[in-house]
Amino acid sequence: MLFRYVHTNIIAKDARLLIDFYKKVLHCKSISESRDLSGEWLDQLTSLNGAHIRGEHLLLPGYEDAHPTLEIFSYDEMKQSVSAEINRPGIAHIAFEVDDVETTLAEILKAGGSTVGELVTAEYPNNRTAVFIYAQDPEGNIIELQSWMQTPER
User: Fold this and answer.
1) May I ask the CATH class of domain 94-150?
2) What are the sequence ranges of the domains in the chain?
3) pTM
4) CB 118 within 8 A of CB 135
5) pLDDT tens-digit profile of 25-71?
């Protein structure tokens, strides 16, 4: 029986801009899976008349070329956006583990992103420490950055 996680989808105001952001700043990779989709089947799937979407699947960092991917699409007709909030019901954020949270955050800010909260360090059991921050991509989608390290026993 096949059962596996395949992708997460972000609907972007400007798919090309967001695709470039995730490739440059968060090390996602193109895998030649661009999409330009329309037709009766898409209308049936989405319950929209005349649906037309364009975008690309990006390989998430740390995975082989098969999957999972981050799918970034734009529809020709878009609803007004609702601002992302960390405690809004639904998918709250996507997370990336990085070597250096502060350096990656600086890259996000330089590329047009922003922060949600403050940079924090948290102690975990088994002498592990994590550094976290919530940031936003240029369209306001929330990204968690995290870095884990083993701390010396006291």
Assistant:
1) alpha beta
2) 7-75, 94-150
3) 0.84
4) no
5) 999 999 988 999 999 999 998 899 999 999 999 999 998 877 789 99
